[in-house]
Every structure is written in C-alpha cells, then in structure tokens.
Design goal:
- This protein is an alpha+beta fold and about 200 residues long.
- The chain has a single domain, classed as Lipocalin.
- The chain has three helices and 13 strands.
- An eight-stranded antiparallel β-barrel has the order 1-5-6-7-8-11-12-13.
- Helix 1 (about 5-15) crosses helix 2 (about 25-40).
C-alpha cells in the first residue's frame, strides 16, 4: 500500500469515527496530489460503474489565482464539518456504452435541504465526468419549498450530450476505491468523498 493510499484511508476512517487520528489538511492535500500523479503515470482508468452510488464529501480544497504566474494554486484544504451533509450521487442510464447518467448534489444543514440534479456523461479513457445541473429542489422541515427546472445549467438535458466537454463543468477522477473517490474539478480544486454506508 502506498503512503498516499494509507493517508487517504486514514482520512476515511477518521471521518467515519473509526478511531483513527485525522491527518492534517496539508498531509491530505499532498496525498491527493500524489494519488493524482500516480494515476497519470500509470494511466489508470475507472469504469463508470465504480462511481455509481452516494458519496459524502469529507475534504475539499479551493483555488486561488496566482498573480505572478497567472495560473491557479490550491488553497489549504479543509475537512467538511459533519453537521453539514454534502453528498454527491451518480447513476447510470442504460445505453450501449455505459457513459450516460445522472448526477445529484445535495447539501443538508439541519432542516434545510438543497438538491441539484442533471445529466452526466463519462469519458472512461480520461476518467472525466462532465455534468450540468438543470433541476433544483429546496425543502425546509421536510416541506417542499421549490421544485423546478433551473437555467443555471448551460444547456437543456436534450442538448447536453451534444455539447463539447470543454464547455461543461467536470470532475477528473484520479482515485476510485470501494471506500472513497477523489477528483479535480474544472476550477482546479481537489475533493475527496467517502462512500455512504
């Protein structure tokens, strides 16, 4: 087992409350960068089926624009507090290539639930999942407050699969295990999710 794998599994165990000490944010960011580098070097690919299910966000980094170089640098990264349930889910539609599906992203804070859903397309050779949110559900104390299509998405669902991936938000997955998944978003940030039990 590599150092970065054991670090990330330690994160999963600590987040689930299984007695492990939580690695520092800097240690987690370094482990994610090592995992990303290893995936590129080994040209790892993951099938869409390995992403299906519900995943709880446990760690994420932001990005900052670097003034001198004009590039993007990673923020420090932080553990997502457990009282804020941030969950992502993936499901597949039955198509020949097993590349099309749906994505759901939801945040629950006490009685408030915000859920975004939309179409997704997976490019297995690049471990790239492009998506677009086009439906919003908002509920408070279990009562539906808003449940409508939204136009924050770039395209309608019917047109989604004809769009260039370069124009859509995406996640580039570089680590997929039974317990966790990790990806870099289009904006450059890193995220680590753990499988919902």
């Amino acid at each position: 087992m590599t150092d970065f794998t054991s670090t990330l599994l330690q994160v999963v165990a600590a987040y689930r409350g299984q007695g492990s000490a939580r690695p520092t944010s800097e240690t987690v960011v370094n482990a994610l960068l090592q995992a990303e580098k290893a995936a590129k070097q080994q040209r790892l690919t993951y099938p869409l089926e390995s992403l299906l299910g519900k995943w709880q966000l446990c760690f994420a980094t932001g990005t900052k624009k670097a003034r001198q170089r004009g590039g993007i640098i990673l923020g420090k990264g932080l553990y997502v507090p457990k009282f804020v349930a941030v969950q992502i889910s993936f499901s597949a539609t039955l198509d020949q290539n097993a590349t099309k599906g749906d994505i759901g992203n939801q945040v629950q804070l006490g009685p408030l639930l915000l859920q975004l859903t939309g179409p997704a397309q997976y490019l297995g050779k690049k471990n790239l999942l492009a998506f677009d949110f086009n439906y919003l559900l908002l509920s408070l104390f279990g009562r539906m407050v808003y449940n409508q299509p939204i136009r924050s998405g770039k395209v309608q669902t019917e047109d989604f699969y004809d769009q260039s991936i370069a124009k859509l938000p995406f996640f580039a997955f570089f680590l997929v295990t039974e317990d966790c998944i990790a990806a870099r978003g289009r904006g450059g940030g890193l995220a680590l999710w753990i499988r919902e039990n």
